[in-house]
TrEMBL record:
InterPro entries for this protein: Gfo/Idh/MocA-like_OxRdtase_N (IPR000683), Gfo/Idh/MocA_Oxidoreductases (IPR051450), GFO_IDH_MocA-like_dom (IPR055170), NAD(P)-bd_dom_sf (IPR036291)
Ranges where the Gfo/Idh/MocA-like oxidoreductase N-terminal domain occurs: 2-118
Gene3D superfamilies according to UniProt: Dihydrodipicolinate Reductase, domain 2 (3.30.360.10), NAD(P)-binding Rossmann-like Domain (3.40.50.720)
Protein species of origin: Euzebyella saccharophila
One Pfam family cited in the UniProt record for this chain: GFO_IDH_MocA
Protein's name according to its UniProt entry: Gfo/Idh/MocA family protein
GFO/IDH/MocA-like oxidoreductase domain segment(s): 153-216
């Protein structure tokens, strides 16, 4: 078992603490929180050991799980890496791209592993069909959330849309060519609704919408590729796969056949991939443990986390000059 310590005991930090405490791959040593009052309260309520000094905790563990506000990710990770500790960092990896690149350099220098908490990579619906998403040419995502004051200190792109940016980058094997985006501030000082059109060098186009002032929650992505349409519902953990193949010479009574302008006939058929329910946060933490133990590449590397941040910041840069305030 790997000795692990958690930095940050807020809403998500407490979830990480509980899961790490239950995990058979980790030994939870304790946690640190900059708010001593909150730290002692969490310790008394759940029984986890509270460290009042960040360096003392880092020295006592092999893995540091960073679940602090984004602004402190870089400083926390730098401290841990320079002490030779592996780091798991919640998304987004850092506040700036320069910080993210510096963490990559430090991790290589001190020979430690890092993983970024893009938890949707471990969503069972996405996992069940990711291997079928091959060379998509159009992608559409909607990530809508009911208003919650927590997280409104950052643009909706870094709060919500970055999940879909990372998922898209994981299946599109091409560099980003161009980004056009717009954002609207409704309640917060930063945009609450954003739409981005990302064009890739291979011709793929992704249209992303994110909102944190919706009346209902939605997290859906649709992937269109040659002879296939794949829909992933990240919230309901459901998938829909519609495919086409050459039609048989003699169609059955219930076969769905389409004919294009050139006279080619295609048969439409449906697949229902099995979705194995899981705890995505526990899975991402435990796969990181496996990467450390087996000396293999983490599922979401620091480089991939940096790439998602880079695109997210470019989206923000694109709509900064167009942002409207209602």
């Amino acid at each position: 078992m790997l000795k692990v310590g958690v930095l940050g005991a807020g809403h998500l930090g407490k979830i990480h603490l509980r899961l790490l405490n239950e995990s058979k791959k980790y030994e939870l040593v304790g946690f640190y929180d900059a708010d001593a009052i909150n730290g002692k309260k969490v310790s008394e309520e759940f029984g986890y050991r509270y460290f009042d000094n960040i360096n003392t905790l880092i020295d006592a563990v092999e893995v540091v799980d960073i679940v602090t506000p984004t602004l402190s990710h870089f400083d926390c990770a730098k401290k841990a890496i320079q002490k030779g500790k592996h780091v798991f960092i919640e998304k987004p990896i850092t506040n700036t791209l320069e910080e993210a690149e510096e963490l990559q350099r430090l991790a290589a220098e001190f020979k430690v592993k890092g993983q970024v908490g893009h938890v949707e990579r471990f969503n069972p619906a996405f996992s069940s069909v990711k291997h079928q998403i091959k060379n998509p040419m159009f992608i559409e995502t909607h990530r809508l959330a009911e208003f919650n004051p927590r997280g409104t200190d950052v643009p909706v792109v870094l709060d919500l849309m970055i999940h879909d940016i990372d998922a898209i980058l994981s299946v599109v094997d091409s560099k980003v060519k161009q980004i056009n985006a717009s954002g609207v501030s409704v309640i917060s000082k930063s945009p609450d609704i954003a739409n981005a059109r990302i064009e890739f060098e291979n011709g793929c186009v992704a249209n992303l919408t994110a909102s944190r002032i919706s009346l209902k929650n939605m997290r859906k992505s649709r992937f269109f590729q040659k002879d296939a349409y794949i829909s992933v519902d990240f919230l309901e953990k459901k998938v829909e796969v519609v495919k086409m193949k050459d039609a048989p010479e003699v169609a059955g009574d219930f076969d769905m056949i389409l004919q294009n302008a050139e006279g080619e006939k295609k048969q439409i058929y449906f697949e229902n991939p099995e979705v194995h329910q899981n705890n995505a946060i526990l899975d991402e933490l435990e796969t990181f443990a496996a990467a450390i133990i087996n000396d293999s590449e983490p599922v979401v590397t620091l480089e991939q986390g940096s790439n998602a941040l880079k695109v997210a910041l470019e989206v923000i840069s694109s709509f900064n000059n167009k942002t409207e305030v209602i």
